[in-house]
Design goal:
Elements (H helix, E strand, L loop, with lengths): L10 H13 L8 H23 L13 H29 L2 H25 L3 H17 L7 H4 L9 H7 L7 E4 L3 E4 H13 L1 H4 L6 H18 L1 H8 L5 H17 L20
Antiparallel strand pairs: 1-2
Helix pairs in contact: 1-2, 2-8, 3-10, 4-5, 4-10, 7-8
Length: 281
């Protein structure tokens, strides 16, 4: 590591400089594509974590929403995209594709997410969850035809969802501001950084040959359409049936996310929502 600067750059900023220097060539023994992915992930985490640490808590009441005006514009875009593209496509998909086939596509996409869960389990020292997710991935990959079927679930071995946003929370990174991201929907600065890293570093997708990656992307799209079709009434009631869909979506997302992280916003908080914004990965 570089020596701490005693002049223009303060000690806190010099830490970021050291990390960025390290990011130029992290893990030199790792293959070049994976090294590029790790470098991009490190820079993304540092940038968004730094932004989250510096964002002042402002906004309406209990919400840290300093970008509310822009978020509402993005929300209008997302609602229009849902009305004009996502909902019609999901209805066509749900009508044309039989239920068992849709479930198989969703199972396959969910199975590809398990190695990322395992990686985050290990980063959080959740050894038992890592073991369960590893066993589920191995069992469904071998006996479920790559995860199309779910024999592990029939045995009571269910996925324990995890992500790098949760890892950042476990490492003490602040949540940052609430965000509404075009196409992706509700998030926070910390959760968005986690999503970027999970996308880049998912082991199962890094190991898939380039020629087969379109299959994995297609499975993701199929899983999204299946979810939108199955939860049509719930999503419609939130996005299209409320007086302030932005405010309701923000409330639901943050309460669900805090519940998943084990953050108790009040003494009696339970999980009142069935996570209408996360796919069943």
């Amino acid at each position: 590591m570089l020596a701490r600067s005693r002049s223009g750059i303060g000690s806190r900023h010099s830490v970021w400089v050291e990390w960025l220097m390290f990011a130029k060539n992290p893990f030199p023994a790792v293959s070049s594509p994976l090294r590029r992915g790790l470098r991009t992930a490190i820079v993304a985490v540092l940038a968004v974590a730094s932004l989250a640490a510096c964002t002042a808590k402002t906004g309406t009441g209990q919400f840290n929403d300093p970008y509310e005006a822009q978020n509402r514009e993005n929300h209008k875009f997302n609602v229009a995209f849902d009305s004009n593209v996502l909902k019609p496509a999901s209805q066509a998909y749900g009508t044309a594709v039989p239920g068992p086939v849709r479930r198989g596509v969703t199972n396959f996409a969910n199975n590809l997410s398990l190695p990322s869960y395992v990686l985050n389990d290990l980063l959080q020292a959740r050894i038992y969850d890592a073991a369960d997710n590893t066993l589920r991935f191995a069992f469904n990959t071998i006996f479920g035809l790559g995860g199309i079927f779910d024999p592990a679930g029939a045995m009571g071995l269910h996925a324990k969802s995890n992500d790098f946003g949760h890892t950042l929370y476990a490492w003490g990174v602040r949540e940052g501001a609430y965000l509404e991201v075009p196409f992706l929907g509700p998030s926070t600065e910390r959760a968005l950084a986690g999503k970027v890293v999970d996308t880049i570093t998912n082991p199962s997708r890094l190991l898939v040959p380039q020629s087969a990656r379109n299959v994995t992307y297609g499975a993701d799209v199929g899983s999204l359409l299946d979810f939108r079709y199955r939860f049509n009434d719930t999503v419609d009631s939130i996005l299209h049936g409320s007086a302030d869909s932005y405010g309701q979506q923000r409330l639901i997302y943050l309460e669900q996310r805090h519940y998943a992280l084990g953050i108790q916003s009040d003494a009696s908080m339970s999980n009142p929502y069935e996570d209408p914004y996360a796919s069943s990965k």
